[in-house]
Amino acid sequence: MNSKDAALLMGVNVSTIKRWTDANLLPCYQTPGGHRKFTLAHINKFLKKNKNKIQKVNLFELKGLADKELIHHIEHVEFTKLIPTFFKAAIEADQNKISTIITGLYLKGVELENIYDNLVFPVMRSIGELWEKDKLTILEEHLASEVVRKAIYELGGSLSIEISDDAISAICFSIAGDEHELPLIMVKQILELNGIRTFNMGRSIPVKSIFDLLDKLNPQYLIISANYQSNKGEIIEEVYELINLIDNRKIKLFVGGSLSEMIKHTFKDKISIIDNMHGLMHKLNKV
């Protein structure tokens, strides 16, 4: 965003934006020509430190949003009211509305992990359950998942996260046979917003392919997403192999997803279970 865009979004005039940036209150990038450019992360960082400014955020300027009822639900962070709207938008492949809701909540100071835990995951879980009950076709399920994934990607691209050179690192991936990528995208965004350099290796990754990365990237954390595997015995074998790989390394292993409790039952204290995104950050902060 340029200064005019930022001013419209934050409900102030351009001279106020200039004053805040000159005083190093509002971070920004400056082009070689001296023009100020802002990302959502810049604005969110300012709003976190200046919570009295949040009420001025002008959601009418956010992608031309004109739905007053939806704006009310976003401004008051009413997840129970936003869930059916978000669900309907996913089923109808309305990516603009999905992006607007997520971005609006973020600019209202809601932590990403809370947006994902209280809005995105419940909706995606409902969509998955409808598919399992044959109330949605596989194409409808894929389309809904794809528009949500693109909206999450779009948000990530607008955050422009900066990681220090000496930051600790994490590797995340989904186990072989698991094609779910959305949790990995969310994990990467949340960890990097908290200063952890994160390498998303993608979906359906055999454990053996991770071995060479351990020496190359020297991660402190390994985070596995385990939501689906047609052969439950195979996922146990994969996790067992992974535990052996990191046995003599100072690496903490986290597992999240619908299959995590089954894995926990087998490996007990050798892994740490992630119940949700908020829980992940809580456990990482305790390590």
Largest sheet: 5 strands, parallel
CATH topology-level fold name of the largest domain:
Rossmann fold
Low-confidence parts = none
For the terminal residues, how far apart are their CA atoms?
Answer: 37 Å
Q: Approximately what portion of the residues adopt beta-strand conformation?
A: 5-15%
Number of helices: 13
- The structural domain count equals 3
Radius of gyration (CA) equals 20 Å
Global outline = globular
Number of strands: 7
Largest sheet, spatial ordering of strands:
4-3-5-6-7
Name the CATH class of the largest domain.
Alpha Beta
Task: Provide the structure class.
Answer: alpha/beta
Helix content: 40-55%
Question: Mind explaining what this structure looks like?
Answer:
The protein has three domains: 1-52, Multidrug-efflux Transporter Regulator, Chain: A, Domain 2 (Orthogonal Bundle); 58-160, Methyltransferase, Methionine Synthase (B12-binding Domains), Chain A, domain 1, CATH 1.10.1240.10; 169-286, Cobalamin-binding domain (Rossmann fold, 3-Layer(aba) Sandwich), CATH 3.40.50.280. Helices cover 54% and strands 11% of the residues. The protein has 13 helices and seven strands. The protein has helices at residues 3-10, 14-22, 40-49, 68-75, 79-91, 95-107, 112-132, 138-159, 182-193, 211-217, 232-245, 260-267, 277-286, and strands spanning 29-30, 36-37, 169-175, 197-205, 221-225, 252-256, 272-274. A five-stranded parallel sheet has the order 4-3-5-6-7, sandwiched between helices. Strands 1-2 form a two-stranded antiparallel ribbon. The model has no long low-confidence stretch (mean pLDDT 86).
